[in-house]
């Protein structure tokens, strides 16, 4: 606690260092490269296993063996292989990604528009907003009394 109190620049009424909140400590803390490396190893192993085996045939033990990490280390970063899948999906840089299907989407689902994969979104509300603009047109059909 002494180290975290020294890192905080807040003082109480007697000009003594006040304890920092967790949010303040997190903002001054540098990201741990070991944590990032462990997560990368697990995610990379999972990606390769998805190509080789498919999601249903992957176990946590397969990920541990491929990544070269321990079970406790894995569970310090992820709750399950579903959590690993969610983290992998969040890293995707694609407009649309199909898993276990191809080209099966509802018509209202936007398509495309990431990096060099397209200029914008197609389908759904996103396309309407992209290709249309709001315009007001008033056509006087007769004289009306205006309050101003």
What does this structure look like?
With 148 residues, the protein is mostly helical. The protein folds into 3 domains: 1-30, no CATH class; 33-91, Arc Repressor Mutant, subunit A (Orthogonal Bundle); 96-143, no CATH class. The chain contains 7 helices and no strands. It has helices at 2-7, 22-28, 33-52, 60-67, 71-77, 81-91, 124-131. α3 (33-52) crosses α6. The protein starts with a helix and ends in a 17-residue tail after the last helix. Mean pLDDT is 75; it is low at 1-13 and 15-25.
What are its keywords?
148 residues; mainly alpha; Arc Repressor Mutant, subunit A; 3 domains; 7 helices; 45% helix; 0% strand; elongated; disordered N terminus
**CATH level 4 superfamily of the largest domain:** Homeodomain-like
What is the chain-wise order of helices and strands?
A: HHHHHHH
CATH topology of the largest domain: Arc Repressor Mutant, subunit A
Radius of gyration over alpha carbons?
27 Å
CATH class (first level) name of the largest domain:
Mainly Alpha
Number of strands: 0
What percent of residues adopt helix (DSSP H or I)? 40-55%
Number of domains: 3
Tell me about the biggest sheet? none
Shape: elongated
As residue ranges, the low-confidence spans are: 1-13, 15-25
- Per DSSP, what share of the residues sits in E-state strands of 2 or more residues? under 5%
- Please tell me the CATH architecture of the largest domain by its name: Orthogonal Bundle
